[in-house]
Amino acid sequence: MRESLRDRCAQVAAKLDRSHPMTKDEMEQISRRMLEEADLPESYLGWVMVMISSEFWADALASVPPERRLFLLPHCLKHAEGCPAEYDQFGMNCKECGACSIADFRSVAEDMGYRVLVAEGSPVVMKIIVGGYVDAVVGVACLNVLEKAIDKVLLAGIPCMAVPLLSSDCRNTKVDEPWVEQMIRTPYKPAAAKTKSYVHLMRAAGLLFEDTLFERLAPRQRESRLGGEGANAYSPGTRMLETTPSETGSRPAVTAEQLEGVDPIAATESIALDFLVRGGKHSRPFITLAAYDAMKGGDGTGADGEDVLNRVPDAVRRAALSIETFHKASLVHDDIEDGDAFRYGQPAVHQRFGTATAINVGDYLIGLGYRLLSRNVMGDEVDAETRVDLLDSLAAAHVRLSEGQGAELLWRDAKDRRLTPLDALKIYALKTSPAFEAALYSGVRMAGDASALVDPIRKFSRNLGVAFQIINDLNDWAGDDSNKLTAGADVIGGRPTLLWALALQHLDADDKERLLGLAEPGCDLSDRERLSTARELYEKANVFEMSLQLIDKHQARAEQVADEIEKENLRRLLYFLVDTVLERPEASGSGEESQPSSSPAVVKIGVVAR
After folding, report:
1. Contact (CB, 8 A) for 561 and 491
2. Membrane-spanning residues where (predicted)?
């Protein structure tokens, strides 16, 4: 049955347009149609999607040399009883005892030149891809992991093939071994890439924070350097390929001890630059670079994307860098205002250096952000009108961000903790949307006249930002290992959220008073008890499900704006941002996933059951 289905998936993939990567929704529609025409049950859907995706990328993967491919294996494929392999910070050290197939697969892959990683999950893989170490991935994983990863793979345009495990019980699992070996042995066939990919733009955004380019774009004003390994610049090493997902955070944060002996005047710059280049997904610089590229023809997503992006003017790079600089400044200040102890999985700046120094570091980053845009550089000038437009856009974004944060703080410190959903959404629109708007506008404006796109960008960003913030609220209930580390931190910190407002709106009077009592300074419940009670009341009011519905609503509005954008490359970028920024939480409390807000056209694939 699996052999027959795989053959059909290959037939389907052969008929698909490969000029652009598909979205997960499009892949789902195609897979559903195949199952309907083959009279097969719904339960095969995820498996079929993985197979069609693998066949879709087969030719693109073959065009990547084996030494630029990553082979990903799961821990659970090992033989559980008596396995001599040990785990450390670099993953599983296979002893090649012959008790399972991991060593066999690994030997074949390494003989061909693959990089091999035995680890779980997709975050580390994305880091490796964006870091520029590999250009394609082949892997083995349980079906549910592949289903979660498929949208990221498709959207980013990463050539990827996978074979699902035959079970998901994480112990003594099995796999179609001949399929895996056939996949590994995919022969190298040099060819130009046919499918558009955002990978080169992601890498270009990350490179802004590498030593040489960063020093060129934002040269140090002071000469003093901090002591200790890797203190002043982010330079990811190839050991990332051997690191487990739990260890893939940013490099160690600079400490107060490293400031000893450093000129006090230079210390602020060193701390600020260290925080600027460390941690984060660099999504805002990516948006600026991608918007600029889209307006210039979209060549950065093509086969020669790396060369195209190497020719991007430094002025555009500085604009992208400035967006991240403002963002990082707001994070330093937010962590102080919200009382958050961690950022990027490490102690926040104010925890390491004190509140006063952290405030000053945030102020320094704001000044640096404006300086990146306010000065001309010889040979890379920006005309005065463009410069004024960019500065005005960023200043407006800065003001709105401060208004939104101010409203949140005033509510947090007020005696009356009542909040309406509309008030919460207004705060979200002010706090989160301006960053997306400034990033998009900066890229479009650097490419030329952007007057016709000002209103669409604002509407798109407002809806994207609000939906993103609601997702952030839901993620708070699942915890965030790469950021604040504390599940339910919004309730403990007394921050106004849509979840809180919806609960107050839909609970009866007694339960409403119970909820309000959790935010009282004199509440005698422990943190754990407060979180448990809040979750109980949230679930009773059905706020998790309502929040997912609101995400869908704002996503649909953002997509409607994108639909009306005439320039195809920019329109595709907006769709890409919707699908990647609005990643639904895995655990929101409701246990339900929302349905896609749009239905792609159904493709007739002409496959019948036999």
Report:
1. no
2. none
465 and 376, same domain (yes or no): no
CA triple 518-520-524, angle to 5 deg: 70
Minimal CA–CA distance to 543: which of 460, 419, 410? 419
> What confidence category does residue 598 fall into, taking pLDDT thresholds of 50, 70 and 90?
very low
Assign 588 a pLDDT band (cuts: 50, 70, 90): very low
CA distance 325 to 374: 14
606 pLDDT tier (thresholds 50, 70, 90):
very low
Which CATH number does the domain housing residue 343 bear?
Answer: 1.10.600.10
- Run of H or E residues at 574: helix 568-581
Residue-range definition of the domain harbouring residue 73: 1-195
Query: 588 — alpha (psi -120 to 50), left (phi > 0) or beta?
Result: alpha
With b meaning 16 or more CB within 10 Å and e meaning fewer, what string describes 386-396? bbebbeebbee
Q: What is the pLDDT of residue 262?
A: 79
Could you tell me which of 493, 491, 489, 521 has the C-alpha nearest to residue 503?
491
CB 340 within 8 A of CB 477: no
CB 544 within 8 A of CB 586: no
Q: Say which amino acid occupies 598.
A: S
DSSP string, 265-284: HHHHHHHHHHHHHSSS--HH
What is the C-alpha separation between 333 and 326, in angstroms, rounded?
11
What's 170's DSSP letter?
Answer: S
Question: Mean pLDDT over all residues of the chain?
Answer: 82
Q: Are 40 and 609 in contact (CB under 8 A)?
A: yes
Name the pairing type of β-strands 342-343 and 346-347. antiparallel
| Residue range 403-417: mean pLDDT, rounded | 88
Looking at the fold, whether 376 and 467 belong to one and the same domain comes out as: no
- Check residue 230 and give its pLDDT: 42
- Collapsed DSSP state (helix, strand, coil) of residue 342: strand
Does a structural domain hold residue 112? yes
Rounded distance between C-alpha atoms, residue 533 and residue 497, angstroms: 16
